[in-house]
Design goal:
12 strands, alpha+beta, Glutamine Phosphoribosylpyrophosphate, subunit 1, domain 1, 5-stranded antiparallel beta sheet, globular
């Protein structure tokens, strides 16, 4: 599940993610069919930074781990990824390409299922600055369905990309949950051959989405906005009947052309508070 955000503003890029990872455990009760029980852990690190690479980083969401028998988070693979990445500065696209290739190999080596359904993927939002570029870049990588990076914010434009358990963020930002589109078509009895989800999505966004001038926002406002969206999801999930897949600390960092990667708030390892 999770919720990851990459926001490209004029002053820099904001990467933010929650800290909850959910594993599904099969349980067998007497005289009952097997059922899946979610087990949540609230200290996962989904903001990924490679040592020595100060101008690019990533957030991950979707599948929380690789490996059925011995599941491992994406963050746990960082030492191996850093060794493969090397020390020379790479472009944002190169970094995203290497993340896709590396985690695709881990997926295959662990004999993880390849269903073709993007909802089962481990997804990465990669953001940063390439050498001599004025503005940042944001790419999306899906493992295993599409490990080839896709640019999410066009050159010369600004915007935000988010994913994971995104329903609440969708409603706040877009004015509608993306899951509503098939519901609309079904309610209007529109035959499947006549449906144009892309056109409907554009129409709904034009009429309903927040008038948020990201191209105008200072970096601090971009940070505040990203934190608000993740925190709103965490708080609202306390009261709803659904999988509570977003939780724990909110990790946030910025990447700028001049200063590179700068942590804004990151959870730390602490001991017991003894009074």
């Amino acid at each position: 599940m999770s919720l990851g955000i990459a926001l490209k503003g004029p002053e820099g890029i904001v990467l933010a993610a929650d800290s909850r990872v959910t594993l599904m455990t099969q349980m067998q009760f007497p005289n009952q069919p097997p059922c899946l029980i979610p087990a949540s852990f609230d200290n996962a690190t989904k903001l990924l930074r490679a040592k020595g690479h100060d101008y690019v980083a990533a957030v991950t969401y979707g599948a929380g781990a690789i490996g059925a028998q011995q599941p491992r988070t994406a963050h746990s693979f960082l030492p191996e990824f850093e060794r493969e990445l090397g020390e020379d500065r790479v472009t944002v696209l190169e970094f995203a390409t290497k993340i896709g290739g590396f985690f695709m190999r881990q997926w295959q080596a662990s004999k993880m299922p390849i269903t073709g359904n993007p909802e089962n993927d481990m997804i990465f939002l990669v953001g940063g600055y390439s050498t001599n570029e004025a503005y940042g870049e944001v790419y999306e990588v899906h493992v295993p369905s599409n490990p080839t990076p896709v640019q999410k914010v066009p050159v010369g434009e600004f915007g935000m990309v988010w994913g994971g358990q995104r329903g609440i963020t969708d409603r706040i930002v877009q004015g509608f949950d993306s899951a509503a589109m098939p519901v609309i078509y079904d309610a209007l009895n529109i035959p499947k051959g006549q449906r144009d989800p892309a056109k409907l999505e554009v129409e709904l966004k034009t009429k309903l989405q927040l008038k948020m001038p990201i191209q105008f926002l200072p970096l601090q406002d971009c940070v505040d906005y990203a934190i608000f969206l993740i925190r709103a999801t965490i708080l609202l999930q306390k009261w709803i009947i659904d999988v509570r897949g977003v939780g724990g600390a909110v990790d946030v960092a910025t990447i700028t052309r001049t200063d590179g990667f700068r942590p804004v708030q990151l959870k730390t390892i602490v001991g017991e508070q003894i009074k």
